[in-house]
Amino acid sequence: MCLRVGYTQAVPWAIWSVLLWSTLTHASWPTFEWKDPNTHEKLWCEKCSLGMSMAKPCTWDMHTQCKPCANEHYTQYWNYVERCLYCSVHCNVLEVEVGPCNRMHNRVCECKLGYHALRFCRFCDDA
Do residues 108 and 93 make contact, with C-beta atoms less than 8 angstroms apart? Predict the structure, then answer.
């Protein structure tokens, strides 16, 4: 015998499943271990989110201070770096930009129509 789940039963179950998964997987802010230079106390500081870098690490009475990445710089992961990474990818004449540099990722290039990439874009030959 098969158990049939109607639309009205499946939708609330799916919503509650997503909410539970979201709560369990995103409940805590990513942290890093830091030793306060003044008190020598070991602390767990919050990491900075994507598109940000650390301005100041936490202290016993203050959260980590983060700052946004400048133009042409990015961080694509939770981090505690003091400087964002430079957008170093530049598309060449055989490529087109499919994703611009922004605060959360480097520029993304793709070969122009009629070209393919092994390591670099090359003309497609049918041989």
Answer: no
